[in-house]
Specification:
Blueprint lengths: L7 H13 L4 H25 L2 H8 L14
């Protein structure tokens, strides 16, 4: 078992969610971290199977359109 420090506002939000779901904050945070780590691992595995050449072949098919206002920085 390890301890971590998280900002108070994050802990308070987690506590609200945990209370709503009738679980401890520790259980909620552990489940969320496990889910995120699993998703990250799957993304890394998929990236390892990909290739820059395949990406380039796909991107060549994308139309060159102006950036929409909502997507502007």
């Amino acid at each position: 078992m390890k301890s971590i420090l998280i900002p108070d506002d994050v802990y308070e939000r987690a506590a609200e969610l945990a209370e709503r779901d009738h679980v401890s904050v520790e259980r909620l945070v552990a489940a969320l971290v496990k889910q995120h780590v699993g998703g990250w691992s799957r993304a890394q595995e998929r990236a390892a199977r990909g290739s820059v050449e395949k990406l380039k072949r796909v991107l060549v098919k994308v139309k060159d359109l102006p950036v929409e206002a909502a997507d502007q920085p």
